[in-house]
Design brief:
Elements: E1 2-3, E2 20-25, E3 28-33, H1 43-56, E4 58-61, H2 68-76, H3 85-89, E5 102-103, H4 119-124, E6 141-150, E7 160-164, H5 165-170, H6 174-183, E8 186-189, H7 191-198, E9 214-217, E10 219-222, E11 227-230, E12 236-239, H8 244-258, E13 264-267, E14 275-279, E15 283-287, E16 299-306
Parallel strand pairs: 3-4
Antiparallel strand pairs: 1-2, 2-3, 4-14, 5-16, 6-14, 6-16, 7-13, 7-15, 8-9, 8-12, 10-11
The chain binds N-oxalylglycine and manganese (II) ion.
Residues 104, 127, 133, 144, 146, 160, 285, 287, 300, 302 line the site of N-oxalylglycine.
Length: 326
């Protein structure tokens, strides 16, 4: 662990305690210790953390002491928040107190553990493939802030894995980069596609092509860092303008490349209050699952920040329509 100079003295709760950081892999993923939000959420601290997320793609902050309220307060400092209102309107109630918190738990409304055979558990299976959040919606997600409220016992699973899609772009052969820049592919993202791949029987009657998809450039600049990025996700149903066979080949090649071990980091959730912030526009992530799923509660709550880059809406109409709704 290396000491990190706090942005201002506000960062230090106890004068003798200096926040520390550790790179999870060279240039990708940063772990911070000593950021305690129990006395509030200083703007200076959020700006400092945002800079680190832009640089490292993923920032893990241990034992934050955040609550639902301060979690949302911090998230709002990252930008405009997405919410679950369209799902509420569609008749899917939220267990959580605030519409801006997405329930990523295995917990039912009555507090019981989700039955792995239930429709919701089947739908959640899609989360175990590498993805970005909300690329299927008209406006994609920028940052996600996931906070642990209750964790299963150690050794029973529940870690989250991340992949570095900027490094994956950087390492492509020059000739491949030129080819991709020349092609300027548009990929079509569908939440139903990734869910159906993960649970084919449950979604047998769903045809993703019958539903709207989010359209985004496959190769694009990550504006906040100025680096190029492969905007990939298991949500990609097809690439426009080429045959489905070619489309599958282009996708498979890039997805297999970007999810190689050397681009991945695993984040283990150690304590309640651990927070992970990632930038969906330069990383992918997936839930690693485990034996805990049917035995122990894992209560995770996510605040999702709308992207505010020029690529936020991709090639989509600016509408409120969301996917995956009945
Ligand atoms: C998410 C997500 C993975 C996890 O919150 O968007 O994919 O490990 N979570 O819970
Ligand atoms: Mn996700």
């Amino acid at each position: 662990m290396t000491s990190i100079a706090p942005a201002t003295t506000e960062c230090v709760q106890v004068s003798t305690f200096v926040p520390q950081y550790r790179e999870l892999s060279p240039g990708f993923g940063l772990e911070l210790i000593g950021y305690d939000f129990s006395k509030g959420v200083p703007k200076s601290m959020s700006l400092q953390i945002k800079d680190l997320v832009v640089k490292y793609g993923v920032v893990v902050i241990r034992k934050t002491n955040l609550t639902d309220e301060t979690h949302l307060e911090l998230a709002r400092m990252f930008g405009e928040l997405d919410d679950v209102k369209p799902y509420l309107k569609a008749g899917r109630p939220n267990r959580l107190k605030y519409d801006e918190l997405f329930d990523v738990s295995n917990v039912e409304l009555d507090g019981s553990i989700l039955d792995p055979l239930s429709p919701r558990a089947q739908a959640n299976k899609g989360n175990s493939s590498f993805h970005v959040d909300s690329s299927f919606n008209p406006r994609r997600a920028g940052y996600s802030l996931l906070l642990a409220h209750e964790l299963p016992p150690r050794g029973t699973g529940g870690s989250t894995e991340f992949a570095d899609t900027r490094a994956a772009w950087d390492d492509l052969a020059e000739v491949k980069k030129s080819e991709l820049l020349q092609a300027d592919y548009i990929a079509c993202h569908s939440i139903l596609h990734s869910k159906k791949l993960a649970a084919p029987e449950h979604f047998a009657d769903i045809e993703p092509a019958d539903h709207p998809m989010g359209r985004h450039k496959l190769v694009q600049k990550h504006e906040a860092s100025g680096r190029m990025n492969l905007y990939l996700a298991a949500h990609i149903h097809h690439i426009e303008g080429i045959s489905s066979k070619e489309s599958q080949a282009v996708f498979d090649e890039l997805f297999n490349h970007a999810t190689q071990e050397k681009y991945r980091i695993t984040v283990d959730w150690d304590d309640v209050g651990d927070l992970v912030i990632w930038d969906n526009t330069c990383t992918m992530h997936r839930a690693m699952g485990g034996e805990f799923a049917s035995k122990y509660r894992r209560d995770m709550r996510r605040a999702t920040v709308h992207d505010d880059s020029t690529q936020a809406w991709g090639l989509n109409e600016h509408t409120e329509v969301r996917q995956g709704l009945p």
